[in-house]
Prior knowledge:
By secondary structure, the chain is mainly beta. The protein has 2 helices and 9 strands, in the order H-E-E-H-E-E-E-E-E-E-E. It has a 5-stranded mixed sheet, with no helix packed on it. Strands 3-1-9-8 form a 4-stranded antiparallel sheet, with helices on one face. A hairpin with a 3-residue loop joins strand 5 and strand 6. The protein is globular. The two termini are 18 Å apart. The relative contact order is 0.25. Residues 1-15 and 187-195 have low confidence and may be disordered.
Amino acid sequence: MLAVWAGLGVAHAQPDGQPDATPRYTVEVVVFRQPPMGTTVEESPSDRPADFRPRMAWPLRPVGTDGLGYERLPAAERRLNRTAARIDARPDFEVLWHVGWIQPGLGADRAQAVALPPSLTAVGLRGDLRVYRERFLHAETRLQWQQAPSAYWIMDQSRRMRSGESHYLDHPALGVIVRVDERPQSTDPGDAPAD
C-alpha cells in the first residue's frame, strides 16, 4: 500500500520518522501545433492511429484540491508564459496546452503519467506525458494529433533533461517545450507542497 501512495506522489515519513527525501520538481509543458514542413521532408502523417502501449495516466487536479493526479501549478507561477504567448502569436502556430504541475522525482517504475485533458480531443489531440528521474531526468511524450480522417501525426519521444533548462522536442507538425526545475526541500513535512 505504501508503494501505491508513493507512486501517487503523497509524502510519507521514513521509518526513522524523518520526511521522505525524494526531490520534488516543478514541471511545465507547452504543446503546440506548427505548420507541417511540407513536401521537402520525408516525414508525413500515418494513415493509422498510434498504437501506444497502455499505461495509467491521470489528469491534473485543480489547484488546492485533493485526490489522484498531480496538482496543477497556478498560471502565475509558470515560467514559460511569455514563451507560450510568443508561439501562439506566430502565424500558423497554435498553443494547444500550456500547463505546469509539482511532482516527486520518482523512477520510471513509479512516476505517473499525466493525461492530456479530454477537451483537447475536440482539436484531435490525445496522449500523455511523463517525467521521471533515474540517474538523470527524463521526459516522455506520447501524443497523437489527428489532422484529417486518415492523417495521424504521432509524437512518441523520450528526452534526457537537465533541471533548470527549457527543452524543445522537435516534430514535423507538433512542438513540445518542457522545463523541469528542482524545488527546495522542505524541513517540515507540514510545509511540503501537496501533489
